[in-house]
Amino acid sequence: AAAAAAAAAAAAAANSTAVMPSPIPNNTSLVNNNNNNIAKREPMSVPLGVLRDGSQDHIKIIQIEKSSEPLGATIRNEGEAVVIGRVVRGGAAEKSGLLHEGDEILEVNGIEMRGKSVNDVCALLGSMTGTLTFLVVPAGIPQIIPGGLGGMRDPPVLHVRAHFDYDPEDDLYIPCRELGISFQKGDVLHVISRDDPNWWQAYREGEEDQTLAGLIPSQSFQHQRESMKLAIAGEVGLRTRKDINGKAGGGGGGGGGGSTLLCARKGRKKKKKASSEHGYPLYATATADDPDPEEILTYEEVALYYPRASHKRPIVLIGPPNIGRHELRQRLMADSERFAAAIPHTSRAQREGEVPGQDYHFISRQQFESDILARKFVEHGEYEKAYYGTSLEAIRAVVASGKICVLNLHPQSLKLLRSSDLKPYTVLVAPPSLEKLRQKRIRTGEPYKEEELKEIIATARDMEARWGHLFDMIIINNDTERAYHQLLAEINSLEREPQWVPSSWLHN
């Protein structure tokens, strides 16, 4: 039943559509759309009686000079009619303002379109060259808004970071596969149209110069089908995210809701798989704090954050034990003019030689417990009947001093830290492959056990799987010196270049 529901919901999101082959208006002309002018043409092959009520009074003729560029529109069947299904942002159809979603195409070069399938129409248009004359029944007169492209208001752009992998070639339900764009977890996408509740139009970061926008699943549609995957998985007892969070769209390639399409966007490069080292993907779908295996992550709204000299972003190092986080932190802290540690709090008594506010912030056990309940500590623990912890205020004090605070934390601390005003930059320090990790221990003379190395790798994989969407960077620590310089170069860029961060950080 759940499988049938999933198929029905996805099928509802995918019309039988096809991309109209390659005409682009160069010297486009719109003949006066009144009955006198229409009467001068050859008699219409489509009887007026089968047109929409009153639509014969609004028929228009559009002449388009066909070239190799895409039109940027799809077609679909509505009964016997051939209708414009979608106008893609950035395409010639949108720029011309002459074709709109819902327009019915009656004829092309005198050839009747009614009764033809989308594939028949695409094959016919693909064989035509030169001037194409479209006889069109408009769906309605679009609202003219000054400054809008093609007579329509340019929508605000929504910037999102993807938390799942997507390949339109694997998606049975995308209405136009050739218009789909692939992306990986962590990619930033610029959504320029959300008119369709199931399919957004977007560009990948760095590819805004593409002629046409591409299709991606909307947040609600992606959430809906992932929810159905979870329901199906629950029926068969598969509760791990590894089993149920594969490539979005799933179901294999070929066939399905999208027709075989003849012509799409020109020169669209297929997105390469995200780079990885030794089997560690750069991003993963996960949850913060104690992850709920049934929480579904789709997109996160992001905004550009411009570095401020008065606010240095804290650097958070995450990773399994014995992977070199401590050494990397110490290398950074050696530059005491630039980096500093947050002074920890403790409930134990002050010892001889210790300076309050320099070695520790000494507070009572009662005060410490009260601060825990008030969520003032990003991380805390108890050792020999005394509390120790790192507070948000201690981190803020470092930031206020103009230095970069460097923290070694457990990933469970990220939820509270990211909900603060501190805007942390989180780095996962991960091990190389088992063989390279073994060679590194031999090279440095460190004693090791095989099971210990396997545990380090397993822990890193688990962290990446559960909290990967919270990591800004992953460093493979096969060589500490190299890892240090890689980390330092990234920190330097944070002070010079804008970064995409959760939009909520800029609204707080």
UniProtKB/TrEMBL annotation:
<dbReference type="InterPro" id="IPR008144">
    <property type="entry name" value="Guanylate_kin-like_dom"/>
</dbReference>
<keyword id="KW-0808">Transferase</keyword>
<dbReference type="InterPro" id="IPR001452">
    <property type="entry name" value="SH3_domain"/>
</dbReference>
<dbReference type="Pfam" id="PF07653">
    <property type="entry name" value="SH3_2"/>
</dbReference>
<dbReference type="GO" id="GO:0016301">
    <property type="term" value="F:kinase activity"/>
</dbReference>
<dbReference type="Pfam" id="PF00625">
    <property type="entry name" value="Guanylate_kin"/>
</dbReference>
<keyword id="KW-0677">Repeat</keyword>
<feature type="domain" description="SH3">
    <location>
        <begin position="155"/>
        <end position="226"/>
    </location>
</feature>
<dbReference type="InterPro" id="IPR036028">
    <property type="entry name" value="SH3-like_dom_sf"/>
</dbReference>
<dbReference type="InterPro" id="IPR020590">
    <property type="entry name" value="Guanylate_kinase_CS"/>
</dbReference>
<dbReference type="GO" id="GO:0005886">
    <property type="term" value="C:plasma membrane"/>
</dbReference>
<dbReference type="InterPro" id="IPR001478">
    <property type="entry name" value="PDZ"/>
</dbReference>
<dbReference type="InterPro" id="IPR050716">
    <property type="entry name" value="MAGUK"/>
</dbReference>
<dbReference type="InterPro" id="IPR035601">
    <property type="entry name" value="MPP5_SH3"/>
</dbReference>
<dbReference type="InterPro" id="IPR027417">
    <property type="entry name" value="P-loop_NTPase"/>
</dbReference>
<protein>
    <submittedName>
        <fullName>Putative calcium/calmodulin-dependent serine protein kinase/membrane-associated guanylate kinase</fullName>
    </submittedName>
</protein>
<keyword id="KW-0728">SH3 domain</keyword>
<dbReference type="Pfam" id="PF00595">
    <property type="entry name" value="PDZ"/>
</dbReference>
<feature type="domain" description="PDZ">
    <location>
        <begin position="61"/>
        <end position="140"/>
    </location>
</feature>
<keyword id="KW-0418">Kinase</keyword>
<comment type="similarity">
    <text>Belongs to the MAGUK family.</text>
</comment>
<dbReference type="InterPro" id="IPR008145">
    <property type="entry name" value="GK/Ca_channel_bsu"/>
</dbReference>
<dbReference type="GO" id="GO:0005911">
    <property type="term" value="C:cell-cell junction"/>
</dbReference>
<feature type="domain" description="Guanylate kinase-like">
    <location>
        <begin position="312"/>
        <end position="492"/>
    </location>
</feature>
<dbReference type="InterPro" id="IPR036034">
    <property type="entry name" value="PDZ_sf"/>
</dbReference>
